[in-house]
């Protein structure tokens, strides 16, 4: 299936750093194939792949994310956007009855969906009326009556031989006098889009002015459903699509293409022959379903939110184990710079409240010039010096000051601050160690 294919592709993305063009190209080659095999419209695929590539190349890989997760997240967001982004609802008229017209080819699921939609509306406290306006097959009226009876919904019909427009108008009158606030007109279908069908539908539209014209399409027909939607939209004007039979082994292509190709959003999906309420269509949930990775996605989001926190925890762990080096100090200062203040970052480290208070009294100014000095000083040190400041003797201090364009006093001051910070950490460790110990950050 499409989701299996995509999962296979994402598994291949490994490593860290920035996503390279090669990584992304390779992954997107496979995503393109998977989408085409799922019968997604080729123009839609082309645009989709282009958009994802542009977004993915050069993306920073956060430490808590794998490259695969980053690409999955982008693919997920773009799939969601492709299907309209947010849920599209039906418009309810401020002046009842709201008139909904179900149109579509024969066998698409109009009659079934009319019943399911009626049930949804009934459950929302509406008083829907089903209208038997498929006048060509006597069985069609009977089918709607059976559905209406089983769902407890009234069904409006007229004598055989009455034309479709007259029935629709009659239904509006009936609804007004019977306080039905929504009417759902079940129209006739054909095996193919033909002129006679279109003219009849246009006639009904012109006479009763529906608030919603919903096209019912069968997901199993793939790109044919997209073509049908395009021609109905061109000729009749559509407000939404009901995509049925998504419970079957539909490849997902129609659902992914229809909005992008026609501009008409999917509003509902049919998930079975059983007369359950019609399900609203949620682009984001559909995208996750296609990716088959709902859990992974929320994980990715969570990871992004907690990235800074995770980094801070790592530091806290090093401090606790007394492995905190000047390199870590530098890294932490860069975090501080990003976050705005030292207080902020200390506030994010569990158990660091005490240190925060002590530092507050020392008036450490970590912005602007001083910050740049500290960075320059640390960068002028050798890795050995950064890892172990006790080896930094007088001549080393001179060299570091020269190398960083600062003075020996600046180097001394930094080393003193750093040593004090470590001392404070040890004190805190002792203070808390006897009782519960520091929180376990690991
Ligand atoms: P219409 O000709 O457009 O009115 O289509 P119908 O409502 O009569 O449905 C045609 C067939 O498709 C019937 O056998 C329905 O039970 C079936 N059907 C409709 N919607 C769905 C669906 O969402 N899933 C499945 N599996 N079958 C459906
Ligand atoms: Mg029907």
Outline the fold blueprint:
Layout: H1 2-11, H2 21-37, H3 42-56, H4 67-82, E1 98-103, H5 110-123, E2 128-133, H6 138-151, E3 155-156, H7 164-178, E4 182-187, H8 195-208, E5 212-218, H9 223-236, E6 240-244, H10 253-262, E7 266-269, E8 279-280, H11 283-291, H12 294-305, H13 307-320, H14 326-339, H15 342-348, H16 353-362, H17 368-379, H18 383-387, H19 394-404, H20 408-433
Parallel strand pairs: 1-4, 1-5, 2-3, 2-4, 5-6, 6-7
Antiparallel strand pairs: 7-8
Helix pairs in contact: 1-2, 2-3, 3-4, 4-11, 4-12, 5-6, 7-8, 9-10, 14-15, 14-17, 15-16, 17-19, 19-20
Bound molecules: guanosine-5'-diphosphate and magnesium ion.
Word description of this protein:
The protein is α/β, with parallel strands linked by helices and 442 residues long. It folds into 3 domains: 2-85 and 295-304, Four Helix Bundle (Hemerythrin (Met), subunit A) (Up-down Bundle); 98-281, Rossmann fold (3-Layer(aba) Sandwich), CATH 3.40.50.300; 308-433, Orthogonal Bundle (434 Repressor (Amino-terminal Domain)), CATH 1.10.260.30. It contains 20 helices and 8 strands. It has helices at 2-11, 21-37, 42-56, 67-82, 110-123, 138-151, 164-178, 195-208, 223-236, 253-262, 283-291, 294-305, 307-320, 326-339, 342-348, 353-362, 368-379, 383-387, 394-404, 408-433; strands spanning 98-103, 128-133, 155-156, 182-187, 212-218, 240-244, 266-269, 279-280. It has an 8-stranded mixed β-sheet with strand order 3-2-4-1-5-6-7-8, sandwiched between helices. The model is unreliable at 344-355, 363-367 and 433-442 (pLDDT under 50). Bound molecules: guanosine-5'-diphosphate and magnesium ion. One of its GO terms (molecular function) is GTPase activity.
């Amino acid at each position: 299936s499409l989701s299996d294919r995509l999962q296979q592709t994402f598994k291949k993305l490994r490593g860290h750093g920035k996503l390279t063009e090669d990584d992304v190209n390779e992954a997107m080659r496979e995503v393109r194939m998977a989408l085409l095999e799922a019968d997604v419209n080729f123009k839609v695929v082309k645009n989709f792949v282009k958009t994802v590539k542009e977004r993915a190349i050069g993306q920073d890989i956060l430490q808590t994310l794998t490259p695969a997760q980053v690409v999955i997240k982008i693919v997920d967001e773009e799939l969601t956007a492709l299907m309209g982004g947010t849920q599209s609802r039906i418009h309810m008229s401020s002046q009842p009855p709201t008139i909904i017209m179900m149109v579509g080819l024969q066998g698409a699921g109009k009659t079934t969906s009319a019943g399911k939609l009626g049930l949804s509306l009934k459950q929302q406290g509406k008083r829907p009326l089903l209208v038997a306006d498929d006048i060509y097959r006597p069985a069609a009226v009977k089918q709607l009556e059976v559905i209406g009876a089983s769902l407890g919904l009234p069904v409006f019909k007229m004598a055989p031989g009455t034309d479709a427009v007259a029935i629709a108008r009659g239904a509006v009158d009936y609804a007004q006098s019977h306080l039905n606030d929504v009417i759902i007109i079940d129209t006739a279908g054909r095996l193919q889009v033909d002129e006679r069908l279109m003219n009849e539908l246009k006639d009904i539209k012109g006479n009763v002015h529906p608030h919603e014209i919903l096209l019912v399409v069968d997901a199993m027909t793939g790109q044919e459903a997209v073509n049908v939607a395009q021609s109905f939209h061109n000729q009749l004007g559509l407000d939404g699509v009901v995509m049925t039979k998504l419970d079957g082994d539909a490849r997902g292509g129609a659902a992914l293409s229809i909005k992008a190709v026609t501009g008409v959003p999917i509003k509902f999906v049919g998930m079975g022959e059983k007369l359950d309420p019609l399900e609203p269509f949620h682009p984001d949930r559909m995208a996750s379903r296609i990716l088959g990775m709902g859990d992974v996605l929320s994980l990715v989001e969570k990871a992004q939110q907690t990235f800074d926190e995770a980094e801070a925890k790592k530091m806290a762990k090093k401090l606790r184990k007394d492995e905190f080096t000047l390199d870590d100090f530098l890294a932490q200062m860069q975090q501080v710079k990003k976050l705005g203040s030292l207080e902020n970052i200390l506030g994010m480290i569990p158990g660091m409240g005490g240190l925060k208070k002590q530092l507050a009294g020392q008036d450490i100014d970590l912005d602007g010039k001083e910050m740049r000095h500290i960075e320059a000083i640390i960068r002028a040190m050798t890795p050995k010096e950064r890892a172990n400041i006790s080896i930094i003797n007088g001549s080393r201090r001179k060299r570091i000051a020269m190398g960083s364009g600062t003075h020996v006093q600046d180097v001394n001051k930094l080393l003193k601050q750093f040593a004090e910070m470590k001392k404070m950490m040890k004190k805190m460790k002792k203070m808390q160690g006897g009782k519960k110990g520091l929180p376990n950050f690991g």
